[in-house]
């Protein structure tokens, strides 16, 4: 875990492939193209970049999307247990940020 002196927050690296932690996951992921993913192993995404860049969008709209993503976050490790040799999601981990 890294932090900047005087800054807010921390940055950490999560190893989702070598150490599955789905049953305790409390993370959301922001992709490099501005999409929010509630689950590393799901293709469900919420577009944040357009919302953040829109001069008409306010904090309430952003909070609404964040709350929706959290409410729809899969619980447990159902996606991993259904996993076969095929990928669970369409995007590569490098595109997701995982």
From TrEMBL:
Which CDD domains does the record match to this protein?
Twitch_MoaA
Q: Name one GO biological process term.
A: Mo-molybdopterin cofactor biosynthetic process
Does the record carry Transport as a key word?
no
Top-level taxonomic group: Bacteria
Name one matching Pfam family. Answer: Mob_synth_C
Question: Taking every annotated instance into account, which residue ranges of this chain make up the domain Molybdenum cofactor biosynthesis protein A-like twitch?
Answer: 2-78
Q: Which SUPFAM superfamilies match?
A: Radical SAM enzymes
GO MF term list: 4 iron, 4 sulfur cluster binding; cyclic pyranopterin monophosphate synthase activity; GTP 3',8'-cyclase activity
What keyword terms does UniProt attach to this protein?
A: Molybdenum cofactor biosynthesis
Give me the segments passing through the membrane: none
Protein name according to UniProt:
Cyclic pyranopterin phosphate synthase MoaA
Report the source organism.
Fundidesulfovibrio putealis
């Amino acid at each position: 875990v890294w932090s900047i002196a005087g800054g807010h927050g921390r940055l950490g690296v999560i190893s989702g492939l070598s150490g599955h932690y789905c049953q305790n996951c409390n993370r959301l992921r922001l992709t490099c193209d501005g999409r929010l993913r509630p689950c590393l192993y799901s293709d469900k995404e919420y577009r944040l970049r357009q919302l953040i860049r829109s001069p008409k969008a306010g904090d309430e709209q952003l909070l609404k999307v964040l709350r929706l993503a959290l409410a729809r976050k899969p619980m447990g490790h159902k996606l991993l247990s259904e996993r076969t040799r095929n990928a669970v999601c369409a995007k590569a981990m490098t595109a997701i940020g995982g």
